[in-house]
């Protein structure tokens, strides 16, 4: 177990292309940190630099306070799970897991190796597959063998490179909880790369959002969701994604595509005299006006919307509302959409309504929203003008307390069962 | 599997084509086999099957006291020894070279590959005369080494090419995984790459062996005695029991005997050659 520190890490490829542009992250002992971002943001490169498969152009990489930039992968004592598992096809499951142990000839006896392999296999429910070859295993089983190979030798940290992207949706959900359970139990420092924001939010103690090789924000999942620093983070975190709407400000009133509303004082201050801003509203901050609690309804505003398409999912109902994009922010938002691997098909916003709502395709209905929940972004820089650092610190502190508590619980449980 | 896809008509056509190809490929071999069992007087009988089955030809080349035994057995020893040594050297060198070509980026990589190709397409006949003079001057003429070196020039290029193609198929990530697991580059190569490349190495070794085994031009030009003369060259020196008898029978028998090791090798390594060991290495 170890802490990992990245100081101004830069990666430039031979052709001068900068894949990572000065990233600094402090990863505490036992922490689960996610590196997330759309394709090409440099997250995998960063991970491969930590493990030593990729040279670091400049900056310092410290493991337990010791600089390891020039160390070969085998001397860094880290374990990695590859995207396509990279199991050795000529070895059985047991030998695959034992592979790291066998490399240090003489240090462990055969009996010790067998015991460690069996312990790892029990942890991952692989006991009855130990004599099979990887080619005869299912995707999820291969995935578990790859994890077994990582946990068998008590490495200083685990590194995961998109480990679930080759599994189907159901298995992905199962393996996600499996990884979370394992990490809690072993309390090993973990760095996990993914492009999937759901994995990032559910697994991470802290999530680092990367964009084009630059770190945008690193915070607890909740702080990222509620207090994103900019348009990019706001658009990346959350599913369905946050709606971005052009907002024209006149004094203390704001004109949105679906109506003009009075702004609360806090937001007027955030707008700071700008005439045009980008307004961010999460889908769940809307509601069918007929289903809003009267006491709550007072706080919000209502407007009429022409519903284009609805998707009823049982737990909730998504409704899509087309709107006219203001020309001066259209380009900025299209660029954002491209960066987030979107297709930029049409300008619409999505609202997540109570599943009891009777709203259907083509209806005109009254929707409700709370202006307090609005985030205001600068249309030029994309900066979140409503970002509240104190709130971020509070959320992160809470998150850190929760993490420590659950670690202690895991320790106590481990001692009890031992 | 195929049967359900192909129509009856197509199946008939495939059967016909298969039979034609088999007959074309195997008729000469069977013909030689039959000739090898004919007695000296039946050689010109004009029949396919020997009128009288006899093993005189085999006795002649194999049993002690046979007229061609001395010539044949020493040639067989030379052929086996020289071909095996040339194959081993070629495969070891080609494995290392191909690994470097497949995995590393170094200046002159393409040059090595094109040079290897160039060497292999250079006509043997145009090299053999200067080589004959050179070998006589430096004392390699009529020695095993004098044949092994030119055989390497034949086997190395094709070995490097086939092995490089094979190494490229082995996922890079397996090696990286081994490195992260704590392996030195040599351990990663020996414990991960070599076992996975084994089918490719077997195939390459087999091809290299056959090239050396089948060579005639170098064998007849660079040797003069039984010290190094291989079988294909030695066949030309067979003589009949008398001046008026042709050695056709003995040559046929010898040809059958030298075909046997090739058949055994193919049968033996067939499974390694065919087995797709890399299956399941990656997601699949």
From TrEMBL, chain A:
**Coiled-coil regions listed in the entry:** none
Which keywords accompany this UniProt record? ATP-binding, Cell membrane, Membrane, Nucleotide-binding, Translocase, Transport
Annotated spans, Disordered:
379-418
Stored InterPro entries: AAA+_ATPase (IPR003593), ABC_transporter-like_ATP-bd (IPR003439), ABC_transporter-like_CS (IPR017871), ABC_transpr_MalK-like (IPR015855), ABC_transpr_MalK/UgpC-like (IPR047641), Mo/tungstate-bd_C_term_dom (IPR008995), NA-bd_OB-fold (IPR012340), OB_MalK-like (IPR040582)
Check the record and name the SUPFAM superfamilies matching this protein: MOP-like (SSF50331), P-loop containing nucleoside triphosphate hydrolases (SSF52540)
By its UniProt entry, which Gene3D superfamilies does this protein fall under? 2.40.50.100, Nucleic acid-binding proteins (2.40.50.140), P-loop containing nucleotide triphosphate hydrolases (3.40.50.300)
Instruction: Enumerate the spans annotated as ABC transporter domain.
Output: 4-237
Spans through the membrane: none
> Which Gene Ontology BP annotations are present?
carbohydrate transport
Biased-composition ranges for Basic and acidic residues? 385-411
Q: Which is an annotated Pfam family here?
A: ABC_tran
Q: Which CDD domains does its entry note?
A: ABC_MalK_N
Record GO cellular component, one term: ATP-binding cassette (ABC) transporter complex, substrate-binding subunit-containing
State if Membrane is listed as a keyword: yes
Would you tell me the protein name for this molecule? Sn-glycerol-3-phosphate ABC transporter ATP-binding protein UgpC
Automatic annotation (TrEMBL), chain B:
ABC transmembrane type-1 domain sequence ranges: 76-269
A GO-annotated cellular component:
plasma membrane
Q: Which UniProt keywords apply?
A: Cell membrane, Membrane, Transmembrane, Transmembrane helix, Transport
The alphabetized list of GO BP terms reads:
transmembrane transport
Q: Which residues cross the membrane?
A: 12-34, 80-99, 111-132, 144-167, 192-213, 250-269
Per UniProt, subcellular location reads as: Cell membrane
Report the sequence similarity comment from the record.
Answer: Belongs to the binding-protein-dependent transport system permease family.
Alphabetical list of PROSITE patterns matching this protein: ABC_TM1
Name of the protein in its database record:
Carbohydrate ABC transporter permease
Superkingdom of this protein's organism: Bacteria
InterPro entries named in the record: BP-dep_ABC_trans_perm, MetI-like, MetI-like_sf
- Membrane topology of the entry: Multi-pass membrane protein
